[in-house]
Amino acid sequence: MLAEIPLQTQEQCRAGVRLFIHDRHHYFSGIRNDERAYLCAIPAYNTGVGNVSKALIDKRNIKEASKKANKMNKKELYDKLYTDLSSKEARNYLKKVWARKEKYK
């Protein structure tokens, strides 16, 4: 199936995956639980890490936002992000990707 996808599109997909992984392991490295870290990295890929931090703690401070994420369970974190992300597009992106997360394993 991969051979059917144009090379340029494949390269763009790989670049997107690299960016997502970078965000998870660089910006959200302070989050101890992978699922919570991914919950933050998903909307960060769409709207930026600063906006995820702002949704969590109302300011752009990734270290403090990560501390808050560590104190929340997965549902609390999802609900907080879904409610407080300022961009409707980012909220919808989180909802769609998280609902399909099993397909990405």
Quick tags:
6 helices, 105 residues
Protein described:
The model has no long low-confidence stretch (mean pLDDT 92). The chain has a domain at 31-100. With 105 residues, the protein is mainly alpha-helical. Helix 3 packs across helix 5 (74-84). Helices cover 72% and strands 0% of the residues. It is globular and about 45 Å long. It has helices at residues 7-27, 34-47, 49-57, 62-70, 74-84, 88-99. It is built from six helices and no strands.
SSE order and pairing:
Elements lengths: L6 H21 L6 H14 L1 H9 L4 H9 L3 H11 L3 H12 L6
Helix pairs in contact: 1-2, 2-3, 2-5, 2-6, 3-4, 3-5
Largest sheet: none
Which regions contain 5 or more consecutive residues with pLDDT less than 50?
none
Based on CA atoms alone, the radius of gyration comes out at 14 Å
Percent of residues in helices: over 70%
Distance between the termini: 17 Å
Give the gist of this structure.
The protein has helices at residues 7-27, 34-47, 49-57, 62-70, 74-84, 88-99. The chain is an all-alpha fold.
